[in-house]
Amino acid sequence: MRLLFWLALACACSTGQGPPLDSALDGLAVRALGPAAWVPGTDVVIRGEAFVPAEFGLATLVLRGEQDGVAAEVALPASFVDYGRMRVAWAGGVAMGLPSDDGQFVGEAVLEIVSGAER
Question: 106: burial class by Cβ within 10 Å (0-12, 13-18, 19+)?
Answer without folding.
Answer: middle
